[in-house]
Design brief:
heterodimer; A: 332 residues; mainly alpha; ABC transporter involved in vitamin B12 uptake, BtuC; B: mainly alpha; two-stranded antiparallel sheet; 2 strands
């Protein structure tokens, strides 16, 4: 069915969702341009750590390793980024530290699950609990940053109506995350490296017989993924909040996993999914502005988590994970 | 395999964690000897500190049991926190809302209704996994956040006494209290009784056999005529029930009302405890007492040795790290038994 009518029928539920969200956005934005633009811009902001976390998950899982530890990787990196940036008074150093610590956490996960062949879900849980413990132990009050990462206007593009404000007036990590979505999609589906990564996740012993090292590919992907999760952590402390708080990831690492599944282990799909989740957060802020549900903020607060559950329950059955996911690889 | 031998790996893991913890304490400029003697003093010296340790161990036993029980069916219940929260809240509501009942009815009723609320909350991820294939690790964590919001709303809008500034339910009736004899809390023995009952259920009943079969090999269990979906739902329900008993005892025996934040983090300690006990229901008891001892004496460690109390979280994470990767411990002791817990292979599939 390639006719227009056929496509309309095939994607009818997506159309319903898109029209519904558009109508709802206009309604909550009071049918005025500025609030509506603000909702869309906030959607992009909230989606940034989610899409970065999801890309970390995609790299790990495409190569066959479950990564439950994204939350811990993000938290440790947010902490490291904050400590280094406040110590050196350089945000760039902070971001670099966040990325490095994320990569190290990725290497730790690889050590636990690839080399030591421990259970991958428990290995990830170890990272999460260790991150909470270590960041609380070493965190001291009274440090401050030299500000947040600056907002960069992308020349004339920034003057475009709506789109300009949403996409072209942003701080640096947000731009980087958008570039990474495209780069990672290209790398995974159009390069030899991507083919090897996917082969290792689908059928490791077959990959090994044609000379791809399963252990090397898994280490590489977990470390790269960790670096991306590290960028997400740096985003939280240095770009979004401008400070560190205990437990500041607040479940985003787990929401990122749902984003990854909803996006079907594809960076571009994950970006779309992250926008949907970011939207549920953005709408909360707008609700506060409009004074809606201010008596019952808890129900608005649980919205992103309920959406995650519904998405998982509705879509995971139809999404197919990499075939050898979750199994430690043994050569014999 | 003797009891002593199977206790060896956890013991080595704890020792290693304490050694690394000592190094961390030393690098932060305090004396590890002073810190660890404060740890022992604060948790076991005298009836009062020992009673506090048992008090703190009670919800941890239940949290550890909840995780260990789910592990037996190959399920990873990270939702202990939310289930415990509901137990604590509903027990608190029944504890103050029902008046004029004798103790022999009121206390068990509050305990039971709290547990049923947690069981219902635990059943949700079970049903979602059995019918829709949504992995319980994500759904239980999401439900923790939903439960926190829901409990806050109920404690603020429905059950808060008028004029109370804090978010909490009113004090429970005397008839709902779980008593403490001297310094020894009755709740602790309720938890121990549950540990024994769960051991019996798993090892001596057909239902327990079915649960373990599903945990070892779901497809083989399915071919043998066991309804895997039914076992998944029931296991998660019972797991939620167990976690919620911990919360109920906390409300009825220790705090005397529902207050959010009192039991923060208990659900996650359950994971450490279950793994430290290598998912054995009775071994959960000493494992919980160990973690409780550290939690009970964290503030004394800060007072006497000047160590940040969060060192306890770090040591617990280290224990988890060493028990979760038996290979590290095997460098110290030759053991051929296969003791890794396996839940990773169930990711993304039913």
């Amino acid at each position: 069915m390639t006719t227009l009518a056929g496509r309309l029928v095939r994607y009818r539920w997506w159309l319903v969702v898109i029209i519904g969200i558009t109508a709802f956005t206009l309604f909550t934005g009071d049918f005025r341009l500025d609030p509506t633009t603000a909702i869309l811009a906030a959607t992009l902001r909230h989606s940034t750590p989610l899409v970065l976390g999801a890309m970390c998950g995609i790299l790990s899982e495409r190569s066959g390793v479950v990564n439950i530890g994204i939350e811990g990787q993000m938290l440790m990196s947010a902490f490291a980024g904050f400590m280094v940036a406040s110590g050196s008074q350089s945000l760039l150093m902070g971001v670099a530290a966040g990325i490095t610590v994320g990569a190290l956490m990725g290497a730790a996960l690889a050590g636990l699950s690839v080399t030591l062949k421990g259970d991958q879900i428990i290995a990830g849980t170890v990272l999460n609990i260790a991150a909470v413990g270590l960041t609380s132990f070493f965190f001291t009050q009274g440090r401050s940053l030299p500000g947040k990462t600056p907002i960069i206007r992308l020349g004339p593009l920034a003057d475009l109506p709506v789109i300009g404000k949403v996409f072209f007036i942003n701080p640096p990590i947000t731009y980087v995350s958008l570039l990474l979505v495209v780069a990672l999609w290209y790398a995974l589906f159009r390069t030899t490296w991507g083919l090897h990564t996917r082969a290792v996740g689908e059928h490791p012993s077959a990959a090994e017989t044609v000379g791809i090292s399963v252990v090397r590919m898994r280490y590489l992907n977990l470390i790269l993924g960790g670096a991306i999760a590290g960028l997400a952590g740096a985003y939280l402390s240095l770009e979004a909040v401008g400070s560190f708080e205990r437990g500041m990831t607040n479940g985003k690492g787990f929401v990122a996993l749902a984003v990854m599944i909803f996006g079907r282990w594809n960076p571009v799909g994950a970006w779309g999914a992250a926008l949907l989740f970011g939207y549920t957060n953005a709408i909360q802020t707008q609700f506060q502005f409009r004074g809606w549900f201010t008596d019952h903020p808890q129900f608005v607060g649980m919205l992103p988590f309920i959406v995650t559950i519904i998405v998982l329950a509705g879509f995971v059955g139809r999404a197919r994970p990499p075939a050898s996911l979750g199994q430690p690889y043994d050569r014999e | 395999m003797s009891v002593l031998r199977s206790a060896l790996i956890p013991l080595i893991a704890v020792t290693l964690a304490l050694v690394v913890g000592a190094i961390l304490i030393a690098t932060s400029g305090s004396s590890p000897v002073e810190a660890y003697s404060a740890l022992i003093e604060g948790s076991f010296f005298g009836w009062e500190s020992f009673g506090t340790t048992l008090e703190k161990a009670t919800p941890l036993i239940m949290g550890g049991l909840a995780v260990a029980f789910a592990f037996k069916a190959g399920l990873f219940n990270i939702g202990g926190q939310g289930q415990l929260l509901f137990g604590a809240l509903i027990a608190g509501a029944v504890g103050y809302g029902f008046t004029g009942l004798p103790w022999i009815i009121h206390m068990p009723l509050a305990l039971l209704l709290g547990a049923v609320a947690g069981a219902a909350w635990g059943a949700i991820p079970g049903i979602l996994k059995a019918t829709r294939g949504a992995h319980e690790v994500i759904t239980t964590i999401m439900l923790n956040f939903v439960a926190a919001n829901m409990a806050e709303w109920l404690a603020t809008k429905v059950w808060r006494k008028e004029g109370d500034i804090l978010v909490r339910t009113p004090i429970i009736e005397d008839s709902a209290e779980i008593p403490t004899w001297g310094h020894v809390p009755l709740g602790f023995f309720i938890a121990v009784a549950f540990a024994l009952a769960i051991w019996f259920l798993l090892q001596r009943t057909t239902f327990g056999f079915e649960i373990r079969s599903v945990g070892l090999n779901p497809s083989a269990a399915g071919y043998a005529g066991i309804s895997v979906k039914r076992i998944i739902v029931l296991t998660m329900t019972i797991s939620g029930f167990l976690a919620a008993i911990g919360g109920s005892i906390e409300t009825l025996g220790i705090v005397g009302r529902y207050e959010p934040g009192v039991n923060a983090g208990l659900g996650f300690d359950g994971i450490t405890i279950a793994l430290l006990a290598r998912t054995h229901p009775i071994a959960v008891i000493p494992a919980a007492i160990l973690i409780a001892a550290m939690n009970a004496s964290a503030s004394l460690m800060q007072f006497k040795a000047g160590v940040a109390p969060e060192i306890v979280d770090v040591i617990e994470a280290l224990i988890l790290l060493f028990v979760a990767t038996p290979i590290i411990v095997r460098w110290f002791v030759k053991s051929r038994q296969d003791d890794g817990v396996s839940v990773g292979a169930t990711w993304g599939s039913t």
